[in-house]
Design a protein that fits this description.
single chain, about 300 residues, alpha+beta, Jelly Rolls, 2 domains, seven-stranded antiparallel β-sheet, 9 helices, about 20% strand
Length: about 300
């Protein structure tokens, strides 16, 4: 007997409308400039946000009544209505400037924010610039551009991607600021939840370090992988483990070295190479510092234990 599919009632699912704490309502300009020596922009103010990022070199910016020098990898957010300009002295500089409209309350944490971007955030900026160059006909190095013109050959969905990339960048940066302040978008969170979140971050860092035991790491790399500031990940990890990130990572390598020595298959030089040490000498020093035994002494102790 055939079932009448039209007679089957719809399954009663309940929808969830995603919240949008960051909503970019419009774009004004996307620039990629190369400034020569002694360049000076006349200065302006407008009723929308402007992100200034220094891709290379250094530039001096004015933000209201403040003056500061941004160097490679740093960005600054000019809030709506703020007078600002940019100039160079004896240096050259490359910069990305993205101006956009956003009325979201969460943007208040980015007011007057000077931040160093991680690799994930730099990648998003790169996508914004590349997509803009395809979506619009304007030259991105036109310092006085005040309106972008749509390209008739723009890739499908290009403008939407730019909006999404900008929103993603802003969300990541807001998260960093909230984490640094110990707050959430709503202004705070219970201590129990803070402790849980910090504990989860410590475990994520541990997992990341374990995955890289046979390589090398940097604190910047850990921070970028966690999408938090360097200061925050260092503080949370030390508070949660009693060790610095590098101390913990070193102990992982030493434990792995002990295991490899016990296999009796590799020379000390091979073990040093496999674990990413810069030299056998450095490996030997780190091993003795941790175990109070030389590599040879430890290897002999393993053999004695086997005999006993």
């Amino acid at each position: 007997m055939k079932t009448d599919k039209t007679a089957i009632e719809l399954t009663p699912y309940k929808k969830t409308v995603p919240s949008s704490p960051i909503n970019v309502r419009c774009l004004y300009t996307v620039h990629y400039f190369r400034y020569g020596q002694k360049f000076a922009f006349k200065g302006e103010r407008h009723d929308f946000w402007e992100l200034v990022y220094i891709d290379s070199g250094a530039a001096e910016i004015t933000a209201g009544d403040k003056t500061l020098v941004l160097t490679q990898g740093e960005c600054y957010f000019h809030k709506p209505g703020e007078y600002h300009n940019i100039r160079t002295d004896e240096q050259f500089a490359n910069s990305v400037i993205v101006s956009f409209g956003c009325d979201s309350a969460a943007m208040s944490v980015l007011e007057d924010a000077r931040l160093t971007l991680g690799e994930a955030e730099k990648s998003l900026l790169n996508k914004i610039v590349r997509e803009s160059s395809d979506a619009f006909t304007d030259k991105l190095n036109d310092v006085y551009l005040n309106k972008m013109h749509r390209s008739p050959d723009a890739p499908f969905g290009g403008e939407q991607l730019i909006k999404l990339y900008v929103e993603q960048l802003l969300i990541l940066l807001c998260r960093r600021r909230f984490a640094a302040d110990g707050k959430t978008e709503s202004g705070g969170e219970p201590k129990e939840r803070q402790a849980k979140n910090a504990g989860e971050l410590v475990e994520r860092i541990k997992a990341y370090l374990a995955e890289n035991t046979y390589g090398t790491i940097t604190i910047d790399g850990v921070a970028n992988a966690m999408f938090f500031s360097k200061t925050y990940v260092k503080s949370v990890f030390k508070k949660g483990t009693g060790q610095t990130i590098m101390q913990y990572f070193s102990s992982l390598k030493i434990d792995e070295a002990k295991k490899l020595i016990s296999y009796n298959r590799y020379t000390f030089t091979e073990i040093a190479y496999r674990l990413g040490y810069s030299s056998l000498h450095y490996f030997s020093r780190q091993f003795k510092k941790s175990t109070e035994m030389t590599l040879s002494e430890y290897a002999r102790s393993i053999k004695v234990d086997d005999v006993l």
